[in-house]
Amino acid sequence: MTQNLADASRPAAAAPAPAAALGTADANSGEPRGWWRDAVIYQVYPRSFADSNGDGMGDLPGVRSRLPYLRDLGVDAVWLSPFYASPQADAGYDVADYRAVDPMFGTLLDADALIRDAHALGLRIIVDLVPNHSSDQHEWFQRALREGPGSALRDRYHFRPGQGTDGELPPNDWESIFGGPAWTRTTNPDGTPGDWYLHLFAPEQPDFDWDHPAVGDEFRSILRFWLDMGVDGFRVDVAHGLVKAPGLPDLGSHDQLKLLGNDVMPFFDQDGVHEIYRTWRRILDEYPGERIAVAEAWTPTVERTANYVRPDELHQAFNFQYLGTSWDAAELRTVIDTSLAAMRPVHAPATWVLSNHDVTRHATRFANPPGGTQIRERGDRELGLRRARAATLLMLALPGSAYLYQGEELGLPDVTDLPDEVRQDPSFFRASGQDGFRDGCRVPLPWSGEQAPYGFGPTAGGPSWLPQPAEWAGLSVEVQTGDPTSTLELYRSALTLRREHPALGAGTAVTWLDAPADVLVFRRDSAAGSFVCTVNTGAEPVRMTAPGRILLASTEAVAVEGETVLAANSTIWWAV
Ligand code: GLC
Fold first, then answer.
1. Which of 80, 314, 445, 482 is the most exposed place for a label (fewest CB within 10 A)?
2. Is pTM beyond 0.90 here?
3. 237 is catalytic
4. Residue 409 among the catalytic residues
Protein backbone atom coordinates (compact mmCIF):
# COMPACT_ATOMS: atom_id res chain seq x y z
CA MET A 1 0.00 0.00 0.00
CA THR A 2 1.42 3.35 -0.95
CA GLN A 3 -0.14 6.26 0.75
CA ASN A 4 0.36 9.86 0.11
CA LEU A 5 -2.41 12.09 1.22
CA ALA A 6 -1.08 15.02 -0.71
CA ASP A 7 -4.11 15.21 -2.95
CA ALA A 8 -6.63 13.78 -0.49
CA SER A 9 -8.09 16.77 1.18
CA ARG A 10 -7.37 20.43 0.62
CA PRO A 11 -7.88 22.56 3.68
CA ALA A 12 -11.24 24.20 4.02
CA ALA A 13 -11.46 27.91 4.57
CA ALA A 14 -10.48 28.66 8.14
CA ALA A 15 -13.14 30.02 10.43
CA PRO A 16 -12.71 33.60 11.56
CA ALA A 17 -10.23 34.01 14.37
CA PRO A 18 -11.81 32.45 17.47
CA ALA A 19 -12.51 34.56 20.51
CA ALA A 20 -10.06 34.68 23.35
CA ALA A 21 -9.50 31.34 25.02
CA LEU A 22 -7.20 32.58 27.76
CA GLY A 23 -7.69 30.87 31.02
CA THR A 24 -9.24 27.73 29.57
CA ALA A 25 -7.33 24.51 29.96
CA ASP A 26 -6.59 21.69 27.57
CA ALA A 27 -8.73 18.68 28.51
CA ASN A 28 -5.82 16.26 28.15
CA SER A 29 -2.86 18.01 29.62
CA GLY A 30 -4.48 20.48 31.97
CA GLU A 31 -2.16 23.09 30.43
CA PRO A 32 -3.55 26.54 29.71
CA ARG A 33 -4.76 26.90 26.16
CA GLY A 34 -4.63 29.76 23.71
CA TRP A 35 -4.62 30.05 19.93
CA TRP A 36 -0.88 30.63 19.89
CA ARG A 37 0.14 27.58 21.86
CA ASP A 38 0.12 25.31 18.84
CA ALA A 39 -0.18 27.90 16.07
CA VAL A 40 1.67 27.57 12.79
CA ILE A 41 3.00 31.03 12.02
CA TYR A 42 4.19 31.90 8.52
CA GLN A 43 6.85 34.58 8.09
CA VAL A 44 6.31 36.97 5.23
CA TYR A 45 9.36 38.95 4.20
CA PRO A 46 7.44 41.77 2.52
CA ARG A 47 10.07 42.90 0.03
CA SER A 48 10.26 39.39 -1.44
CA PHE A 49 6.72 38.06 -1.21
CA ALA A 50 4.59 39.75 -3.87
CA ASP A 51 5.06 43.00 -5.79
CA SER A 52 1.76 44.63 -6.76
CA ASN A 53 3.08 47.68 -8.61
CA GLY A 54 5.93 46.23 -10.64
CA ASP A 55 8.78 48.20 -9.07
CA GLY A 56 10.64 45.00 -8.24
CA MET A 57 10.01 45.30 -4.51
CA GLY A 58 7.29 43.37 -2.70
CA ASP A 59 4.66 45.46 -0.92
CA LEU A 60 1.65 45.31 1.38
CA PRO A 61 -0.98 45.24 -1.39
CA GLY A 62 1.00 42.29 -2.78
CA VAL A 63 0.80 40.47 0.54
CA ARG A 64 -2.89 41.29 0.76
CA SER A 65 -3.56 39.82 -2.67
CA ARG A 66 -1.93 36.54 -1.62
CA LEU A 67 -3.70 36.11 1.72
CA PRO A 68 -6.06 33.48 0.27
CA TYR A 69 -2.97 31.44 -0.65
CA LEU A 70 -1.86 31.53 2.98
CA ARG A 71 -5.34 30.64 4.20
CA ASP A 72 -5.40 27.67 1.82
CA LEU A 73 -1.92 26.64 2.90
CA GLY A 74 -3.43 26.19 6.34
CA VAL A 75 -1.35 28.47 8.56
CA ASP A 76 -2.84 30.21 11.58
CA ALA A 77 -0.97 33.50 11.57
CA VAL A 78 1.31 35.62 9.44
CA TRP A 79 4.34 37.43 10.83
CA LEU A 80 5.41 40.35 8.66
CA SER A 81 9.02 41.50 8.76
CA PRO A 82 9.31 45.31 9.04
CA PHE A 83 7.47 47.47 6.52
CA TYR A 84 7.94 50.76 8.42
CA ALA A 85 9.47 53.97 7.15
CA SER A 86 13.13 53.13 6.77
CA PRO A 87 16.16 53.99 4.68
CA GLN A 88 16.60 50.20 4.30
CA ALA A 89 20.19 50.06 5.49
CA ASP A 90 19.28 46.65 6.96
CA ALA A 91 16.22 45.74 4.89
CA GLY A 92 13.84 47.64 7.15
CA TYR A 93 15.34 46.59 10.50
CA ASP A 94 16.49 50.21 10.67
CA VAL A 95 13.28 52.06 11.46
CA ALA A 96 13.00 55.82 11.01
CA ASP A 97 9.32 56.09 11.96
CA TYR A 98 7.65 53.27 13.87
CA ARG A 99 4.15 54.50 13.12
CA ALA A 100 4.48 54.93 9.35
CA VAL A 101 4.58 52.52 6.43
CA ASP A 102 7.49 53.03 4.06
CA PRO A 103 6.17 54.29 0.69
CA MET A 104 8.06 51.39 -0.89
CA PHE A 105 5.63 49.03 0.85
CA GLY A 106 2.46 51.14 0.68
CA THR A 107 0.53 53.21 3.19
CA LEU A 108 -1.05 52.86 6.60
CA LEU A 109 -4.33 52.37 4.80
CA ASP A 110 -2.80 49.36 3.05
CA ALA A 111 -1.71 47.99 6.42
CA ASP A 112 -5.20 48.50 7.79
CA ALA A 113 -6.77 46.74 4.79
CA LEU A 114 -4.30 43.89 5.11
CA ILE A 115 -5.12 43.36 8.79
CA ARG A 116 -8.85 43.45 8.10
CA ASP A 117 -8.65 41.05 5.16
CA ALA A 118 -6.49 38.65 7.12
CA HIS A 119 -8.96 38.58 9.98
CA ALA A 120 -11.84 38.01 7.60
CA LEU A 121 -9.96 34.95 6.31
CA GLY A 122 -9.28 33.68 9.83
CA LEU A 123 -5.59 34.61 9.75
CA ARG A 124 -3.88 36.52 12.52
CA ILE A 125 -1.28 39.20 11.90
CA ILE A 126 1.94 39.61 13.85
CA VAL A 127 4.16 42.60 13.12
CA ASP A 128 7.84 43.09 13.77
CA LEU A 129 8.92 45.47 16.50
CA VAL A 130 12.51 46.74 16.49
CA PRO A 131 13.21 48.18 19.97
CA ASN A 132 16.97 47.65 20.30
CA HIS A 133 17.94 50.32 17.82
CA SER A 134 16.44 52.83 15.43
CA SER A 135 17.60 54.07 12.08
CA ASP A 136 20.20 56.82 12.14
CA GLN A 137 17.53 58.78 10.24
CA HIS A 138 15.12 58.58 13.20
CA GLU A 139 14.15 62.06 14.33
CA TRP A 140 15.62 61.58 17.82
CA PHE A 141 19.00 60.53 16.48
CA GLN A 142 19.09 63.22 13.83
CA ARG A 143 18.35 65.88 16.46
CA ALA A 144 20.93 64.36 18.80
CA LEU A 145 23.55 64.79 16.08
CA ARG A 146 22.37 68.22 15.00
CA GLU A 147 22.20 69.64 18.50
CA GLY A 148 25.69 68.40 19.29
CA PRO A 149 27.23 67.43 22.65
CA GLY A 150 24.89 68.34 25.48
CA SER A 151 21.74 67.57 23.50
CA ALA A 152 19.23 65.88 25.80
CA LEU A 153 18.34 63.57 22.90
CA ARG A 154 21.78 61.99 23.15
CA ASP A 155 20.75 60.35 26.42
CA ARG A 156 18.28 58.20 24.52
CA TYR A 157 21.17 56.51 22.71
CA HIS A 158 24.64 55.49 23.90
CA PHE A 159 26.88 58.45 23.12
CA ARG A 160 30.29 58.30 24.79
CA PRO A 161 33.60 60.13 24.52
CA GLY A 162 36.34 58.09 22.88
CA GLN A 163 39.48 56.76 24.54
CA GLY A 164 43.05 57.79 23.67
CA THR A 165 44.62 61.20 23.81
CA ASP A 166 42.13 62.80 21.42
CA GLY A 167 39.20 60.46 21.87
CA GLU A 168 40.28 58.71 18.69
CA LEU A 169 39.67 55.20 20.06
CA PRO A 170 36.22 53.65 20.59
CA PRO A 171 34.82 53.75 24.15
CA ASN A 172 35.09 49.99 24.58
CA ASP A 173 36.06 46.83 22.71
CA TRP A 174 32.63 45.67 21.57
CA GLU A 175 32.29 44.54 17.98
CA SER A 176 29.28 44.89 15.72
CA ILE A 177 27.41 41.69 14.96
CA PHE A 178 27.83 42.69 11.33
CA GLY A 179 31.61 43.06 11.67
CA GLY A 180 33.88 45.93 12.63
CA PRO A 181 33.68 48.03 15.79
CA ALA A 182 30.29 48.55 17.46
CA TRP A 183 31.04 52.29 17.70
CA THR A 184 31.10 55.09 15.18
CA ARG A 185 32.55 58.51 15.85
CA THR A 186 30.37 61.53 15.22
CA THR A 187 31.35 64.87 13.85
CA ASN A 188 30.28 67.88 15.89
CA PRO A 189 28.13 70.59 14.28
CA ASP A 190 31.30 72.74 14.11
CA GLY A 191 33.12 70.06 12.12
CA THR A 192 35.40 68.81 14.92
CA PRO A 193 35.53 65.09 15.76
CA GLY A 194 32.97 64.33 18.45
CA ASP A 195 31.65 61.55 20.65
CA TRP A 196 31.08 57.99 19.59
CA TYR A 197 27.73 56.15 19.51
CA LEU A 198 27.01 52.48 20.00
CA HIS A 199 25.52 50.28 17.26
CA LEU A 200 25.51 46.54 17.81
CA PHE A 201 24.55 46.16 14.16
CA ALA A 202 25.24 48.55 11.27
CA PRO A 203 26.35 52.17 11.90
CA GLU A 204 22.95 53.18 10.51
CA GLN A 205 21.33 51.36 13.48
CA PRO A 206 22.19 53.26 16.71
CA ASP A 207 21.24 51.37 19.90
CA PHE A 208 18.68 52.99 22.19
CA ASP A 209 19.58 53.49 25.83
CA TRP A 210 16.72 51.76 27.59
CA ASP A 211 17.74 53.33 30.90
CA HIS A 212 16.19 56.54 29.64
CA PRO A 213 12.48 56.61 30.52
CA ALA A 214 11.49 58.27 27.23
CA VAL A 215 12.55 55.14 25.35
CA GLY A 216 10.23 52.87 27.31
CA ASP A 217 7.39 55.39 27.07
CA GLU A 218 7.81 55.60 23.33
CA PHE A 219 7.74 51.85 22.82
CA ARG A 220 4.72 51.36 25.03
CA SER A 221 2.99 53.94 22.87
CA ILE A 222 4.14 52.19 19.67
CA LEU A 223 2.77 48.90 20.99
CA ARG A 224 -0.59 50.53 21.58
CA PHE A 225 -0.56 52.16 18.15
CA TRP A 226 -0.31 48.79 16.41
CA LEU A 227 -2.60 47.03 18.86
CA ASP A 228 -5.19 49.70 18.14
CA MET A 229 -4.65 49.00 14.44
CA GLY A 230 -5.77 45.45 15.24
CA VAL A 231 -2.59 43.42 15.07
CA ASP A 232 -2.57 40.15 16.97
CA GLY A 233 0.98 40.35 18.17
CA PHE A 234 4.61 41.32 17.81
CA ARG A 235 7.83 39.61 16.93
CA VAL A 236 10.38 41.39 19.10
CA ASP A 237 13.63 41.95 17.23
CA VAL A 238 16.84 41.46 19.23
CA ALA A 239 14.74 41.02 22.37
CA HIS A 240 17.84 39.99 24.30
CA GLY A 241 19.76 43.19 23.51
CA LEU A 242 17.86 46.11 24.97
CA VAL A 243 19.67 46.35 28.31
CA LYS A 244 23.44 46.73 28.45
CA ALA A 245 25.62 45.96 31.48
CA PRO A 246 26.15 49.10 33.62
CA GLY A 247 29.25 51.01 32.56
CA LEU A 248 29.44 49.20 29.22
CA PRO A 249 32.40 47.07 30.37
CA ASP A 250 34.97 45.72 27.94
CA LEU A 251 34.48 42.18 26.83
CA GLY A 252 38.17 41.38 27.27
CA SER A 253 40.17 39.24 24.97
CA HIS A 254 37.42 36.78 24.00
CA ASP A 255 36.62 35.93 20.43
CA GLN A 256 33.36 37.80 20.45
CA LEU A 257 31.72 36.14 17.50
CA LYS A 258 32.40 32.69 18.90
CA LEU A 259 30.82 33.73 22.16
CA LEU A 260 27.66 35.07 20.60
CA GLY A 261 24.77 32.93 21.66
CA ASN A 262 27.08 30.78 23.79
CA ASP A 263 27.63 32.97 26.77
CA VAL A 264 26.05 35.89 28.56
CA MET A 265 27.46 39.07 27.02
CA PRO A 266 27.53 42.59 28.53
CA PHE A 267 25.19 43.63 25.73
CA PHE A 268 23.01 40.53 25.41
CA ASP A 269 20.67 38.63 27.69
CA GLN A 270 21.10 40.96 30.64
CA ASP A 271 18.58 40.23 33.38
CA GLY A 272 17.22 43.78 33.23
CA VAL A 273 15.41 43.12 29.94
CA HIS A 274 12.77 41.10 31.72
CA GLU A 275 11.26 44.08 33.52
CA ILE A 276 10.60 45.66 30.12
CA TYR A 277 8.68 42.59 28.96
CA ARG A 278 6.61 42.53 32.14
CA THR A 279 5.32 46.01 31.33
CA TRP A 280 4.63 44.96 27.75
CA ARG A 281 2.73 41.89 28.86
CA ARG A 282 0.41 44.04 30.93
CA ILE A 283 -0.35 46.13 27.84
CA LEU A 284 -0.95 43.08 25.64
CA ASP A 285 -3.30 41.65 28.25
CA GLU A 286 -5.38 44.83 28.27
CA TYR A 287 -6.47 44.08 24.72
CA PRO A 288 -9.08 41.47 23.82
CA GLY A 289 -8.30 38.42 21.72
CA GLU A 290 -5.02 37.17 23.18
CA ARG A 291 -2.46 39.46 21.60
CA ILE A 292 0.97 37.89 21.81
CA ALA A 293 4.65 38.65 21.56
CA VAL A 294 7.45 36.35 20.43
CA ALA A 295 11.04 37.04 21.36
CA GLU A 296 13.94 36.89 18.99
CA ALA A 297 16.38 36.13 21.77
CA TRP A 298 19.66 34.44 20.95
CA THR A 299 20.58 33.10 24.38
CA PRO A 300 23.25 30.63 25.48
CA THR A 301 20.77 27.93 26.50
CA VAL A 302 17.10 27.03 26.12
CA GLU A 303 16.82 27.50 29.88
CA ARG A 304 17.75 31.14 29.50
CA THR A 305 15.36 31.44 26.58
CA ALA A 306 12.61 30.23 28.94
CA ASN A 307 13.13 33.35 31.07
CA TYR A 308 11.59 35.42 28.27
CA VAL A 309 8.35 33.43 28.36
CA ARG A 310 7.62 33.30 32.06
CA PRO A 311 3.89 33.72 32.68
CA ASP A 312 4.13 37.50 33.10
CA GLU A 313 6.49 38.11 30.18
CA LEU A 314 6.30 37.31 26.47
CA HIS A 315 4.35 34.37 25.04
CA GLN A 316 6.88 32.63 22.88
CA ALA A 317 10.55 32.73 22.00
CA PHE A 318 12.17 31.35 18.89
CA ASN A 319 14.01 28.12 19.43
CA PHE A 320 17.30 28.85 17.73
CA GLN A 321 18.92 25.85 19.36
CA TYR A 322 16.51 23.75 17.28
CA LEU A 323 17.23 25.72 14.12
CA GLY A 324 20.94 25.13 14.66
CA THR A 325 20.65 21.37 15.13
CA SER A 326 22.05 19.12 12.41
CA TRP A 327 20.04 16.46 10.67
CA ASP A 328 20.99 13.83 13.21
CA ALA A 329 18.55 11.67 15.20
CA ALA A 330 20.43 11.77 18.50
CA GLU A 331 21.03 15.51 18.37
CA LEU A 332 17.44 16.18 17.41
CA ARG A 333 16.13 14.06 20.25
CA THR A 334 18.32 15.91 22.73
CA VAL A 335 17.24 19.36 21.59
CA ILE A 336 13.57 18.34 21.55
CA ASP A 337 13.82 17.01 25.10
CA THR A 338 15.72 19.99 26.47
CA SER A 339 13.39 22.45 24.73
CA LEU A 340 10.25 20.83 26.10
CA ALA A 341 11.76 20.48 29.56
CA ALA A 342 12.84 24.12 29.61
CA MET A 343 9.40 25.41 28.67
CA ARG A 344 7.33 23.19 30.96
CA PRO A 345 8.06 24.97 34.26
CA VAL A 346 7.09 28.35 32.78
CA HIS A 347 3.97 26.95 31.07
CA ALA A 348 5.03 28.33 27.73
CA PRO A 349 4.75 26.36 24.52
CA ALA A 350 7.91 25.17 22.89
CA THR A 351 8.50 26.64 19.46
CA TRP A 352 10.18 25.12 16.44
CA VAL A 353 11.74 26.78 13.44
CA LEU A 354 13.95 25.64 10.59
CA SER A 355 14.35 28.75 8.43
CA ASN A 356 14.00 32.52 8.56
CA HIS A 357 15.30 35.60 6.76
CA ASP A 358 18.63 35.52 8.63
CA VAL A 359 19.83 31.99 7.95
CA THR A 360 20.55 29.74 4.99
CA ARG A 361 17.34 27.93 4.07
CA HIS A 362 17.16 24.45 5.57
CA ALA A 363 16.96 22.79 2.15
CA THR A 364 20.47 24.12 1.55
CA ARG A 365 21.80 23.64 5.09
CA PHE A 366 20.85 19.98 4.93
CA ALA A 367 22.39 19.70 1.46
CA ASN A 368 25.78 20.43 3.01
CA PRO A 369 27.86 18.98 5.83
CA PRO A 370 26.89 20.53 9.17
CA GLY A 371 28.50 23.96 9.37
CA GLY A 372 26.51 26.75 10.93
CA THR A 373 23.65 28.81 9.58
CA GLN A 374 25.41 30.87 6.88
CA ILE A 375 26.34 28.60 4.02
CA ARG A 376 27.49 29.64 0.59
CA GLU A 377 27.74 26.18 -0.99
CA ARG A 378 25.01 24.78 -3.18
CA GLY A 379 25.55 21.25 -1.83
CA ASP A 380 23.58 18.18 -2.90
CA ARG A 381 20.21 19.69 -3.80
CA GLU A 382 18.29 16.43 -3.99
CA LEU A 383 19.55 15.28 -0.61
CA GLY A 384 18.88 18.70 0.91
CA LEU A 385 15.29 18.77 -0.25
CA ARG A 386 14.65 15.21 0.85
CA ARG A 387 15.94 15.98 4.34
CA ALA A 388 14.13 19.32 4.41
CA ARG A 389 10.80 17.63 3.72
CA ALA A 390 11.48 15.05 6.42
CA ALA A 391 12.58 17.75 8.86
CA THR A 392 9.40 19.71 8.27
CA LEU A 393 7.17 16.74 9.03
CA LEU A 394 9.16 16.12 12.20
CA MET A 395 8.79 19.75 13.24
CA LEU A 396 5.05 19.80 12.57
CA ALA A 397 4.53 16.71 14.74
CA LEU A 398 6.09 18.30 17.81
CA PRO A 399 4.05 19.87 20.62
CA GLY A 400 4.01 23.64 20.47
CA SER A 401 4.07 26.32 17.85
CA ALA A 402 5.93 26.13 14.54
CA TYR A 403 7.33 28.93 12.41
CA LEU A 404 7.56 28.64 8.63
CA TYR A 405 9.54 31.00 6.42
CA GLN A 406 8.06 32.03 3.09
CA GLY A 407 9.14 29.78 0.25
CA GLU A 408 10.09 26.79 2.37
CA GLU A 409 6.73 25.32 1.39
CA LEU A 410 8.06 25.37 -2.18
CA GLY A 411 11.24 23.59 -1.09
CA LEU A 412 13.25 26.61 -2.19
CA PRO A 413 17.00 26.35 -1.75
CA ASP A 414 19.16 29.33 -0.87
CA VAL A 415 20.46 31.15 -3.91
CA THR A 416 24.13 30.56 -3.24
CA ASP A 417 25.56 32.15 -6.38
CA LEU A 418 24.18 35.69 -6.21
CA PRO A 419 26.68 38.04 -7.81
CA ASP A 420 28.32 40.25 -5.19
CA GLU A 421 27.13 43.40 -6.94
CA VAL A 422 23.44 42.62 -6.32
CA ARG A 423 23.86 41.80 -2.65
CA GLN A 424 22.32 44.14 -0.09
CA ASP A 425 22.97 42.43 3.25
CA PRO A 426 24.96 45.02 5.24
CA SER A 427 26.89 42.28 7.02
CA PHE A 428 28.28 41.07 3.68
CA PHE A 429 30.00 44.40 3.19
CA ARG A 430 31.15 44.88 6.77
CA ALA A 431 32.59 41.38 6.84
CA SER A 432 34.42 42.00 3.54
CA GLY A 433 32.46 39.26 1.80
CA GLN A 434 33.44 36.57 4.31
CA ASP A 435 30.03 36.43 5.96
CA GLY A 436 26.58 37.92 5.57
CA PHE A 437 25.04 35.73 2.90
CA ARG A 438 21.51 36.45 4.07
CA ASP A 439 20.43 37.69 0.64
CA GLY A 440 20.45 34.07 -0.49
CA CYS A 441 17.29 33.29 1.47
CA ARG A 442 15.63 36.60 0.57
CA VAL A 443 15.21 36.12 -3.19
CA PRO A 444 11.62 36.92 -4.30
CA LEU A 445 9.19 34.01 -4.49
CA PRO A 446 8.22 32.33 -7.77
CA TRP A 447 4.44 32.24 -8.10
CA SER A 448 3.76 31.38 -11.73
CA GLY A 449 4.83 31.60 -15.33
CA GLU A 450 7.89 30.82 -17.40
CA GLN A 451 9.68 34.08 -17.21
CA ALA A 452 11.18 35.98 -14.28
CA PRO A 453 9.95 37.41 -11.99
CA TYR A 454 7.64 34.36 -12.10
CA GLY A 455 4.53 36.18 -10.98
CA PHE A 456 6.33 37.97 -8.13
CA GLY A 457 5.57 41.18 -10.00
CA PRO A 458 2.71 41.89 -12.39
CA THR A 459 4.71 41.87 -15.64
CA ALA A 460 6.70 39.05 -17.24
CA GLY A 461 10.21 40.32 -17.76
CA GLY A 462 9.72 42.94 -15.02
CA PRO A 463 12.22 43.62 -12.25
CA SER A 464 12.85 41.90 -8.93
CA TRP A 465 15.20 43.43 -6.35
CA LEU A 466 17.28 40.26 -6.32
CA PRO A 467 17.50 38.06 -9.42
CA GLN A 468 15.71 34.71 -9.30
CA PRO A 469 17.42 31.62 -10.73
CA ALA A 470 15.98 30.34 -14.02
CA GLU A 471 15.28 26.94 -12.44
CA TRP A 472 12.73 28.56 -10.13
CA ALA A 473 10.24 28.45 -13.03
CA GLY A 474 9.87 24.78 -12.11
CA LEU A 475 9.35 25.52 -8.40
CA SER A 476 6.52 28.03 -8.66
CA VAL A 477 3.26 27.80 -6.73
CA GLU A 478 1.50 27.28 -10.04
CA VAL A 479 3.70 24.35 -11.06
CA GLN A 480 3.51 22.66 -7.66
CA THR A 481 -0.21 23.08 -7.07
CA GLY A 482 -2.03 19.81 -7.62
CA ASP A 483 1.15 17.76 -8.00
CA PRO A 484 0.90 15.19 -5.19
CA THR A 485 4.67 14.77 -5.10
CA SER A 486 5.37 18.49 -4.70
CA THR A 487 6.66 20.06 -1.53
CA LEU A 488 3.82 22.57 -1.59
CA GLU A 489 1.23 19.79 -1.50
CA LEU A 490 3.18 18.06 1.28
CA TYR A 491 2.92 21.23 3.38
CA ARG A 492 -0.76 21.64 2.56
CA SER A 493 -1.49 18.05 3.58
CA ALA A 494 0.57 18.32 6.74
CA LEU A 495 -1.13 21.53 7.83
CA THR A 496 -4.57 20.11 7.05
CA LEU A 497 -3.84 17.05 9.17
CA ARG A 498 -2.46 19.19 11.96
CA ARG A 499 -5.74 21.07 12.10
CA GLU A 500 -7.82 17.91 11.99
CA HIS A 501 -5.80 16.07 14.61
CA PRO A 502 -5.13 18.04 17.78
CA ALA A 503 -2.62 15.43 18.98
CA LEU A 504 -0.20 16.99 16.51
CA GLY A 505 0.91 20.28 18.00
CA ALA A 506 -0.95 20.13 21.31
CA GLY A 507 0.44 19.21 24.71
CA THR A 508 3.89 19.54 26.18
CA ALA A 509 5.51 16.15 25.78
CA VAL A 510 6.40 13.40 23.37
CA THR A 511 6.70 9.76 24.33
CA TRP A 512 9.83 8.23 22.86
CA LEU A 513 9.59 4.63 21.69
CA ASP A 514 12.46 2.24 21.07
CA ALA A 515 14.21 2.92 17.80
CA PRO A 516 17.32 1.78 15.97
CA ALA A 517 20.28 4.11 15.52
CA ASP A 518 19.56 7.09 13.24
CA VAL A 519 15.83 6.65 13.82
CA LEU A 520 13.43 8.57 16.05
CA VAL A 521 10.07 7.11 16.95
CA PHE A 522 7.71 9.05 19.17
CA ARG A 523 4.09 8.94 20.12
CA ARG A 524 1.64 11.80 20.64
CA ASP A 525 -1.68 11.23 22.36
CA SER A 526 -4.84 13.24 22.72
CA ALA A 527 -8.50 12.50 23.31
CA ALA A 528 -8.98 12.88 19.55
CA GLY A 529 -6.51 10.13 18.70
CA SER A 530 -2.92 9.04 18.84
CA PHE A 531 -0.06 9.42 16.44
CA VAL A 532 3.33 7.98 15.93
CA CYS A 533 6.01 9.84 14.04
CA THR A 534 8.96 7.93 12.63
CA VAL A 535 12.04 9.73 11.38
CA ASN A 536 15.04 8.20 9.69
CA THR A 537 17.93 10.65 9.55
CA GLY A 538 20.32 8.00 8.26
CA ALA A 539 21.51 7.28 4.73
CA GLU A 540 20.21 3.68 4.80
CA PRO A 541 16.62 2.44 4.76
CA VAL A 542 15.48 0.81 8.01
CA ARG A 543 12.95 -2.04 8.25
CA MET A 544 10.62 -1.95 11.24
CA THR A 545 7.18 -2.94 12.47
CA ALA A 546 4.60 -0.56 11.10
CA PRO A 547 3.19 1.34 14.08
CA GLY A 548 -0.20 1.93 12.45
CA ARG A 549 -1.74 3.39 9.33
CA ILE A 550 0.27 5.81 7.23
CA LEU A 551 -1.18 9.30 7.26
CA LEU A 552 1.51 11.23 5.49
CA ALA A 553 5.06 10.62 4.40
CA SER A 554 7.83 12.94 3.31
CA THR A 555 8.77 10.49 0.58
CA GLU A 556 7.22 7.38 -0.98
CA ALA A 557 6.23 5.12 1.94
CA VAL A 558 4.83 1.61 2.09
CA ALA A 559 3.48 -0.55 4.90
CA VAL A 560 2.82 -4.19 3.97
CA GLU A 561 1.54 -6.80 6.42
CA GLY A 562 2.57 -4.82 9.45
CA GLU A 563 6.07 -4.12 8.22
CA THR A 564 7.48 -0.97 6.79
CA VAL A 565 10.71 0.30 5.44
CA LEU A 566 11.66 3.77 6.54
CA ALA A 567 13.43 5.24 3.57
CA ALA A 568 16.67 7.08 4.18
CA ASN A 569 16.12 10.72 5.22
CA SER A 570 12.38 10.44 5.59
CA THR A 571 9.56 11.01 8.06
CA ILE A 572 6.20 9.25 8.29
CA TRP A 573 3.15 10.20 10.33
CA TRP A 574 1.09 7.23 11.50
CA ALA A 575 -2.39 7.04 12.97
CA VAL A 576 -2.44 4.43 15.73
C1 GLC B 1 17.44 40.68 13.83
C2 GLC B 1 16.84 40.55 12.45
C3 GLC B 1 17.91 40.77 11.43
C4 GLC B 1 18.48 42.15 11.62
C5 GLC B 1 18.95 42.34 13.04
C6 GLC B 1 19.19 43.78 13.34
O7 GLC B 1 18.37 39.69 14.09
O8 GLC B 1 16.22 39.31 12.32
O9 GLC B 1 17.44 40.62 10.13
O10 GLC B 1 19.55 42.33 10.74
O11 GLC B 1 17.98 41.94 13.98
O12 GLC B 1 17.96 44.44 13.44
1. 482
2. yes
3. yes
4. no
